[in-house]
Every structure is written in structure tokens, then in C-alpha cells.
Amino acid sequence: MSSQKQETVKRITVPEITARKGGEPIVVLTAYDAPTAEIMDAHCDVLLVGDSVGMAVHGLPSTVGVTLEMMILHGQAVMRGSKRALVVIDMPFGSYEAGVEQAYANAVRVLKETGAQAVKVESGPEVPATIEYLVKRGVPVMGHVGLLPQSINIDGSFKAKGREEAERARILQSAHDTANAGAFAVVIEGTAESLAREITEAIAKPTIGIGASAACDGQVLVGPDMLGVFDWTPKFVRKYADLRGEIGRAVESYAADVRARRFPAEVETYFSKKPALP
């Protein structure tokens, strides 16, 4: 029996996400490992294996150092842990900018080696042509406009976009071009509310906001951010838990028990079997 027949839970599809435009808000979180993906799967429409994994998991200063191999490894883990959510994997910096052939080869590798349903690209001036090329060849693509983390070395910092008219016009045009090229949804990051609203009303594809207001068709946050793993998070993050505090308290208790020889106790210890009576 094939794995497809064995699967009892049907995954959300790309067309189903596109059809949510203007309807029930789309719930998205980033996930990087199987246990977290399993927990999130029941509650999320989309799990994004973001290149934010470089900063959130690997301790990198930005997403620029993330490799295709890293994205594939984490994508495989998220696919193993999830059954229901649509899984989208970021194409990392340097994996799609050189040309459409490079983008296609790497995107196909991502989908084949992970089993994920789509890839995401940050939408610079040359990217709409790449999106169109990929979509025509069977690769679903999610776009990304506004603040572009992979452009940190050009921008110099992570700062909100769309506050000046010239910048607004450029981002709005990028969103139009990205949607018209065939992206099934568009992430809007770190963008002024009025611009995010204008983009959402102007394009026919769902918008997924991250620091782009409730005007968008859905929302995404970095999983460890909303779970409270870090002391500092961007302004747009709402912490729904304090995992940093919980983990710290748990480790502190464990260390105290080990030093006091309270752990392991008898219940956590293996003993030799008693010999059978004659």
C-alpha cells in the first residue's frame, strides 16, 4: 500500500490557500523540526520552513548564511512531523537569483527531497520572471515583499518599509508583479499598515502579514518568537508563551537535583532481575 493511501489526513493544498482570499484568515507559523511541526500542525493552515532558521536555530546574525542543504534538512523534519498543513520552504539567499535555470533546479531539488508543496522567494526586481518560470513548470511559489531579510547587506538594518511615497510605489508594484507572475500568496513583511491594506485590496492573491497589520488575509510569525524563546523580539511579535523562562526553570531544577543526588531516583533506575525461585 502506498504512503498516499496510508495517509488518513489530507493536506491543505495550494489552490485551497489561494481560495481563502478575503475569507477566513490564514494561520501561518514557521517550523524547523518534527516535534514542533507536529504540535503546530493541528492549528495552522501553512507551516513555513523559513530561512529564519539561520537566526532562530543556528545562531547566525542574518539569513544570508543559510544554505540550501540546511533548508532541505529542516524541511524534511517538518514534513515528517506534520500531516495536515501546507508546507512551504524558503529558497535561501543565492539559490535562485542567478537565473531561472538555477532557480528551477534548486526548487525542484527542494520539493523532491522534502516532499513539501511549495517554495517561497523574496521578490526583488528580477524575481517575477523567475516566479513565472517556476509556476509554468509545476513549482508553486509564495512571494515576499516589503522588508526583505535577504537584502540586509544592502539595506543595512531591519527597518519598516513603505513610509515614504517612492518606497510605497516600488513595493506596491513589486506586489502586483509578484501576484501577476503566478505566486499563489504573498508575504508582506515589516510594512506600514496603509500600504499593506492597499496591497491586500489591490491583488487577487492572499497576503500573509508579518509586521504588516491585521489588514492582510493571514498572519505569520516566527515560531520561537511567539513562543517566547528569546529575550528580545521585534515590535510586531506577540509572545503567547514564556518558553525561555520555562526551560530555564526546568534546567535549574534538574541541575539542583543532580547535584543533590535526588536524580535519578529509584523510579528512574534499572535494577538487576531477581533470580527465579527453584
**What is the mean predicted local confidence, pLDDT?**
95
Q: How much helix, percentage-wise, in residues?
A: 25-40%
Distance between the termini: 50 Å
Tally the helices. 12
Query: Based on DSSP secondary structure assignment, what is the total number of beta strands?
Result: 8
Structural class: alpha/beta
Major beta-sheet overview: 8 strands, parallel, barrel
Rg (C-alpha, Å): 22 Å
Strand residue content? 5-15%
Strand arrangement within the widest β-sheet reads 1-2-3-4-5-6-7-8
- Principal-axis shape equals globular
> Residue ranges: pLDDT <50 for 5 or more in a row?
none
Record the SSE blueprint.
Elements lengths: L2 H4 L7 H5 L7 E5 L3 H8 L4 E4 L3 H4 L11 H14 L4 E5 L9 H15 L3 E3 L6 H10 L4 E6 L5 H4 L9 H16 L4 E5 L3 H10 L4 E4 L7 E4 L1 H4 L16 H17 L19
Parallel strand pairs: 1-2, 1-8, 2-3, 3-4, 4-5, 5-6, 6-7, 7-8
Helix pairs in contact: 3-5, 5-6, 6-7, 7-9, 9-10
What does this structure look like?
This protein has 278 residues and is an alpha/beta fold. Helices cover 40% and strands 13% of the residues. The protein has 12 helices and 8 strands. It has helices at 3-6, 14-18, 34-41, 53-56, 68-81, 100-114, 127-136, 152-155, 165-180, 193-202, 223-226, 243-259; strands spanning 26-30, 46-49, 86-90, 118-120, 141-146, 185-189, 207-210, 218-221. The chain has an 8-stranded parallel beta barrel with strand order 1-2-3-4-5-6-7-8, surrounded by 6 helices. Strand 1, helix 3 (34-41) and strand 2 (46-49) form a beta-alpha-beta unit. The longest helix has 17 residues, at 243-259. It is globular. It starts with a helix and ends in a 19-residue tail after the last helix. The model has no long low-confidence stretch (mean pLDDT 95).
